[in-house]
Design a protein that fits this description.
about 45% helix; mainly alpha; two-stranded antiparallel sheet; single chain; about 210 residues
């Protein structure tokens, strides 16, 4: 077992530190800092050279796979082209295609204009007299006028349903009111009554 006896690991007395001055008298080790900075600089340079070499190898392999440069594979700097001028003639053709293109057309306003048009057609039909069938003289009247006529005349009544003639040997069913006295057993009570009647019991279940 290791015991601490005030000596160092090599058996010598520990160095005594003079604390009478109240501060550290020795300077910072500049040598260690210089070694670290030089090592870091060498590491950065080596890493940069290695990355550049890897990039050149990759580019050389891509050029070898792409083949020689031609008019189809030539790299063009599009910044030299500048902003291409718009063609009024092409814009007019696009507008004509958009207008004359047969339905159904792709919506360009998320359907908002279609909804406005639909509501406009509905309001025309609801608020004005319009022909339903001009050859037969059928006219669609405004909804306000239809409400006034219903208030005056009432809703039309459907004709009474006609019962079919009875078959031979059939008789018209007779219904006696009320159909029930208001009492209804639960499922458990109904099962209990059925079991009692099956075994001959006559005591009613309440």
């Amino acid at each position: 077992m290791h015991t601490h006896n005030g000596h160092g690991d090599d058996g010598r007395e520990p160095e005594e530190i003079d604390i009478s001055a109240g501060y550290e008298k020795s300077d910072v080790g500049v040598t260690g800092i210089l070694v670290f900075m030089v090592s870091l600089g060498i590491f950065v340079v080596v890493t940069g050279v290695l990355c550049y070499g890897i990039g050149e190898v990759i580019n050389a392999r891509m050029d070898r796979e792409d083949g020689p440069t031609s008019k189809w594979s030539k790299t063009v700097d599009i910044r030299q082209l500048g902003n291409l001028p718009s063609s009024p003639e092409l814009q007019n053709k696009m507008a004509a295609l958009t207008t004359d293109f047969p339905t159904p057309r792709v919506q360009t306003d998320d359907g908002n204009q279609d909804i406005v048009n639909l509501h406009g057609r509905e309001e025309i039909l609801l608020d004005n007299y319009t022909w339903v069938d001009q050859s037969k003289g059928k006219v669609r009247i405004p909804i306000e006028r239809a409400m006034e006529l219903i208030a005056q005349r009432g809703l039309p009544t459907a004709p009474a349903a006609q019962s079919a003639p009875l078959m031979t040997g059939d008789s018209a069913p007779t219904i006696t009111l009320p159909l029930t006295n208001g009492f209804a057993r639960t499922g458990y009570e109904q099962e209990l009554a059925d079991s009692q009647s099956a075994h001959g019991y006559t005591q009613p279940v309440k």
